[in-house]
Fold this protein.
Amino acid sequence: MSTLHKYHTFFSNHKTPFYFYDTGLLKRTLDEIKRASSPYNYHVHYALKANTNDTLLQLIKEAGLGADCVSGNEVKKAIELNFGADKIVFAGVGKSDDEINYALQQNIFCFNCESIPEIEVINELAKQQNKVAKIALRINPNVDAQTHKYITTGLEENKFGINLHELTEVLEILKQCKHLKLIGLHFHIGSQITDLNTFKNLCTRVNEIQHWFQQRGYQLEHINVGGGFGINYSKPDEESVCNFEAFFSLFKKFLQVQPHQQIHFELGRAVIAQCGSLISRVLYIKKGTNTNFAILDAGMTELIRPALYQAYHKIENVSVIQHSAANIQHFKYDVVGPICESSDCFGKAVELPETKRGDIIAIRSAGAYGEVMSSQYNLRDKVKSYFDTELN
Ligand code: LLP
């Protein structure tokens, strides 16, 4: 039985669709991240792009995580919520002058630089502010993340990072940049990576790249290995907290760390995905030629992942609780939204207990890249959110 059944009355009494967040689970996840990373003194930054809901950010900040930002507004959000400028990293291939200027004014910890022209612009803007900006080179390590092609970032064909063959030129240019201080290297190869071997491959590549820098006399204080740790979308209740112990200990085992070095991570999905569900109501059951459609009041405007990445999210009928599952007939439904797009489909041939108009449907593991990627296409209302704490 889903852990969400206990909230059924609350769900029924509220206008759908909305996001529902389990802050108790978020706290347990944060405790586990702390427990598993602290023996190695790892710095964990939360990737704000996954979810910028203030209530959740507050809890994440209180747990002591830093902030990984990819826009000026994310930097601003992290500053406003007191993550601490010295714990903010700023990545992204297209930082605008205004965004760079703002981050310089705030004296953030580090700019993760993704190209030669960007390095030159940050140097120039830092000069105008009479500052020295701390930078890390985001290096494209050419490691295959074995994930969906839209969320792979560490291959040479991707737009992200500086390619290995450009490094000599970058070091030459850096010698001329008096307003930059190179403090580290940054990597991020992709998202929803579930095979830990992929991270082992990343470690091997980072070791090689570090060696290249050492041979040229560079001792870099910070190594940031990015995020990407995947979650179990099929079993949101059984594996509600990721195996952070296995994740961090793998880096401990395979990453060659110099005595002076500090290691950073940027986790998004693994922190927040399992804490959120999209709650909706069945508007209609429509008989198709070969299938039944369960038409929900939530659509790709609230959760775009299935339409954009063919992503799987577990779908549950939270209204069917009282009876034992054995007594209930199950049927297959194409679970779709109301938006005028054929891709507005949460799942095809989803087996559910017999489902009726008005039933509450939960789309699980939607805490990451759900609410933040929602839109008002078709002039839809902005999606609301509720928290488990509101039930008391
Ligand atoms: N660091 C950098 C530089 C990133 O680009 C990302 C994610 C992260 C950290 C955090 O990755 P995570 O730990 O969450 O995997 N919208 C897509 C995911 C896009 C990820 C973009 N970058 C989705 O819904 O699957």
